[in-house]
Structures are given as structure tokens and as C-alpha cells.
Amino acid sequence: MKKKLTQLRWLVTMLLLVTAMVMPLKAAAQTTITSGDFTYEVISADDKTVGVKSYSGNGGNVAIPQTVSDGTNTYTVTKIMNYVFSKNSTLTGISMPGTIIEIGNKAFYSCNNLTGDITINDPIQKIGLSAFNNCYNDQLTLKFTNLQNVHIGSGAFFGCKGLSSLGGTISYIDEAAFTSCTKLTGSLTLSADITSIGYQAFYKCSISDITCHASVPPTLSDRCFDSDVNYTIHVPYNTVTNYQSVWAASYSKMDISAIGADPVPSGGITIYAKGETAPYIYAYSGENKLSGAFPGTQMTQWTSVNDEKFWFYNIKGYESISYRLNSGSEQSQSGEFTATDNRYHDTAPWGDITDEVINGSGGGDNPEEGGETDEPAPAKDITIYVKGAEAPYIYARIVVDESGNRINPAGSFPGTKMTESTTINSENFWYYTISGYSSFKYILNNGNIYGEIKQSETQLATGDRYHGEGTIWADITAQMRPASTDITLAANSGSTDYWGTYSNMSSAARLSTVDGTSLKVYDAKVSGGVLTLIERTGCNVALGEGVLVWSNGAKVRATAITDKLNATVNTDLVATPSVAQTKTADDGYKLYRLTYNDVESKTGLGFYLSLVKDENGKVDETSLGKKLKATPGKAYLKVSTEAATTTANAAPARGFVFPGDDETTGIGEIVIEGDAGISGSANADGRIYNLQGQQVTAPVKGLYIKNNKKVVIK
């Protein structure tokens, strides 16, 4: 039996051996292919794709084929792999197929004799580290066309003097990607996916027109752009302010505007209307129809104002116009408006929001200044600035009575030649100041009344205006405004003590008065339920620092400066972010905003626990002290619950109220008046209180509250 089993095992073994010998052998997977001067590496056997792995030819003008065959299958060439032509001094020209999607690290590194035209286009997806680094031959011309979200590696084109254009979109730019590409001009488009631009990426390049589709400004590494180049930047219209805060803060010569926005013409009267849908404008002056018969003309141009889309229509040649906005029919139209200067309107039904847009009121932490008034605008100093080496003439006129009589504060035409100049943003500006008027119209000209007269369009000045150089002196006030901004302060009704908060997330700033009034700047600290104001030395404010401002005038001016200042750390004032948003208090903290206790009567000005409205426009009571609507350029109080708690009530204060006009001891503290007296009237009864709000019947020497005022008992 045992012998039979042994024989059976031997027979099975032999059968298996014979079967294995006669079965066809399966070929091992092929990993490389050699054809002509190239060796290729198979990237995907299933997709039939290969990459150029090495080159063994004699150089000259080399053409990489689009496909290669191993005798059985045909493969598509999709990649030039790492180091293929690195330091190849015999390579004088290269032709790549349109199937290449990736160029590897140092693929053409230091190919110094590489010349001719090389076009890199779609479907390329990635260009690796130092791919064309040090290809500096002046006879080499590199161009990008129709790129779609390409990834550019570190030093990919460093020192490529022949790189001349970047057509298409780029999604990733590593450090030194285009450093010293001195012939790189034209425009650059960055995709919506880009998040950062590497160190010295475009350093010493001539490219200056950049479109970036990212909704969040990409992080800029050190020296990624040249500080002395004038850049024109185009970004999504609802992100302009954010880019100005992030990008323009690092590069002052960036002119940032919305993608697709139209340039706003200078001169004349421009009517703006907010919204996604362009309205019609029916404008007239007397019997003259300025935009056609009703419904008029549909607006076709738009721009970004405060990160919102505004359509606009410009009318020249008239000092005053009347108009209505409509949807193209009588069923949906605004009331009649009259304009002598630019005006701004909300979405349909197109209410007037000119003051809100220009002055930034109606949404900030500082309270509104009230509605319309019939009182004439106060007289003030208005300065006209003009950039350039050559001083222009200014001719101004002012209508002084109902009969139309005029005066010319700069003399009869051509007016007065400017003789004083100053430096603004490192550029020379001539200037001329007219005092004692709230507004005037003016023309800039070359003074050549006996030859070819060159002059600007008629301009209206209600505040300082800025103009570019040249023979038309275009208005550049909008570009210059970020460098100098007027801040509107608030006061209790009948008071001359004006207060406001201020911050700047773009640069440090110097605060000054507008019309010769007084100015003080304070830090603020809360302890034991008492808010103490600490007067600062000087009126400079560091980047990202929040301060409290006092003046006996309604406005102060903030001018951007380049000084590197250290922010104060001993303060509870916090700067608002560069983009409007709702802030939420950390656990154990309360948020206070500057406002009136009664906005309608303008009384009880002070800091109060913040509140926000819900999605239905109703006050969210649960947000008290927890959420705050923060708008750029302001500051708010962030106070620990412990520090905000009063001794008298053993609870966080609801507010800190400013003292009255006849305060005898100077501004030093803001005293909490408790829930019953938060409006400033509860203790106006002759009784005496200590600074903790407790009534005192036999006061000793010290500081007390009587009739809602601080007094000193000696």
C-alpha cells in the first residue's frame, strides 16, 4: 500500500512539471522603453503613458515625440522627468508635444545654450523645482499660453531672461519661481485656489498687471514683489477692501480694483446705484433730457464701492441735474432727486445713501450723527493737490448769492499758479488752499492763455482733492483717500466734547485736527467696574491698535505713516478687523461698543454692552455683551467679566458713560452709573456717591460724583 502511494505522488509531480513546461510563459511587466535618443519610463501601463527618463543624443534642436511604441503598444508621452537635460550644454532647441502635463525637477537646469521659442501651454499641470533655472541665454524666448491652474515649483524659472509672458492661470507659486526674469511683462492671472505666493517669487520682474480670483488674499512672502513697481491689481469686487488691507499694506504702490469694473470718469456728476441688476436712469435739466426719453438709459458700467457692486452713470456739462432711477417701467421707480455732485443709491427702490457711503455712517461702532439738516455746511479749509514736477494754475469760482453772482478766490482766469509743494507717498504734489468756504468749483490749467491752453474738466470740491500729473490732471482722490481719512466723532446733544474710536489694519497713522480744534488720544482700562482713560503722549497710532479719541470738534483726520510703532499692551480697546464681521466674546469676557443710550435724543454717550440683530432684523437679546458687529476702522472694549463687575451691584456694568461739559477735574475716569442711572440722569439729585456708585453721607477728601459730575472734595 505504501509503495502505491509513493508511485502516485511521483506521477502527480511529473504531470505538474510537464504542464508547467508546456504552458506559455507570461511576460514580465515592461518598465522602460528605449527608442531613438530617448529612454522612457512607463508611468501607467493601463493608461499607456510614459515619461522621458533620459537623453543620449548629440544635442542641437531636439524634438520630443508625442508617442512611442514598444512594438506591441503605443504610449503617450506625458512627462519630462527629473534631470533629463540638466546641464546639457549641447542642447540648443527643444520642441515639446502638447501632451506634456509635467516637467520634472531640474529637467532643463543650466541649459545655457538653449535658444529659440518655447511655448508651454495647456494641459501642463506642474513645472518642478528649478526646471528652467539658470537658462539665461538672451536668444531663448519662453511663453506660457492657455495655462489652467498650473503649479510652479521653487526656482522654476530663476534667472530666465527670455521668459516674456504668463498666459493662463496659476494656482501655486513657490519661492523664487520667477526671480530675475527681467523680460517678464504683461499680465498674470492667479486662480481662485491660490493661497500663497513664495519668497521673491516675482522679485526683479517687470510684470505689473495681476488678476487674482481668490476670495481670500493669498499670503505674500517677503519680497515676493518689487516695492518700487506700480502694480495694477484686479480682485473679486467684494474683496477689494480686504486686499487693500493685506496686500497694499505691504506694497504701497498697488492700485487695487474689482475684476471687470469700469473706470469711473472724472468730472461731471456721477450717479451710483447698488445691486446686481443695472437700473435705468432718467435724467433731465429743465427741458433737456440727458439720458433719453423715459425710462431713460440702462446703466452699463459698474465699480466696487466698499466691497459692493455699484452701477454708475456720468453726466457732464451741467452744474445741477434732476433724475429718477427705475427698472425700465413706471411701475418701479424712485422719487425725484437733484444732484450737484456725485450721489449714491441703495438697491431698489433706490433710497439715497450718499452720506453713508462717503462718511461711513450707519453701521459703525460710533453712533449716527442724525438726519438731514437745513443748516449750511460750515466754512473750512479745502486744499487741492496736484502731482508732478511742474506746478499748474488753479482757477476757482464760488456762487455767493441767489442771483448767481460769483467770486474767484484764486483770481481771474487762468487763476493762480501753485507755488507750494509737499511730498506724499514719496511723490511731489503741488497744492493750493482756499479758506472760508464749504465748497467751490475749479479748473486746473497750464496758464498759457496766449497759446495752446490745456485744462482739466470742471471739478467740485467739498473737501481736499487730489489730481494726477499730465495735461488733463485726472482726479485721483479715491486712490489717495486711504492715506488721509476724516473720522466723524459723536457728542451728547448740546455738548462740545466729541468722542470716537479709531484703528487702522493697513498701516500706522497720525491723528490730527481738521479745523484747528483740540485733540487727545486715550488708551482705556477697566478694573473694578471703573473705566479709566489714560492720555497718550502724541497722536500716533500703531498698526492694528485701537484707541479712543476726544476733540472739541466733530472731525479729526487720520493720515497713514510708515513709522514702525509698538502697540500699547495696557489697554482693553481692541481694533476692529479689516473686513466687517461679527465678533464673539471669549469665555469670561464682555464686549462694549461706543454708542448713545438714546440715539434719537443723542444722550448718554458711552460704551455699552454690545447687541446684534438676528436674521429677521430683531435684536438678539442673547447676544448682549457676547456678540458685536465690527466694522473696519473702529475699536471696541473687550473686558473680563471680573474687571467689569461693579462693587455696588456685584454684576458686570451695562455701560460706562462720559461725564458732562462742566466736569471740573479733567478727563480721567468714566464712572459706572449702574442700571438705574445708565442714561446719566439717575443721580442728578444733589446726592453724593463714591466711584463705586455707593451713596456717601459724610464724604472726606477725595473724588466723588455729584449731580452726575465728578467733583473733588479738599
What would your notes on this structure say?
With 714 residues, the protein is mainly beta. The protein folds into four domains: 32-258, Alpha-Beta Horseshoe (Leucine-rich repeat, LRR (right-handed beta-alpha superhelix)), CATH 3.80.10.10; 269-359, Immunoglobulin-like (Sandwich); 380-475, Immunoglobulin-like (Sandwich); 496-679, no CATH class. The chain has five helices and 57 strands. The strands form 13 sheets. Strands 1, 2, 3, 5, 6, 8, 9, 10, 11, 12, 13, 15, 17 and 18 form a 14-stranded mixed β-sheet that branches. The longest helix is centred in the first third of the chain and has 21 residues, at 2-22. The radius of gyration is 36 Å and the shape is globular. The N and C termini lie far apart (129 Å). Residues 20-28, 360-377, 661-669 and 671-686 have low confidence and may be disordered.
Number of domains: 4
Q: Which class of secondary structure composition applies to the elements?
A: mainly beta
CATH topology assignment of the largest domain: Leucine-rich repeat, LRR (right-handed beta-alpha superhelix)
Query: Could you describe the largest sheet, including whether it forms a barrel?
Result: 14 strands, mixed
- Global geometry: globular
Tell me the Rg in angstroms: 36 Å
CATH superfamily of the largest domain: Ribonuclease Inhibitor
**Terminal-residue CA separation:** 129 Å
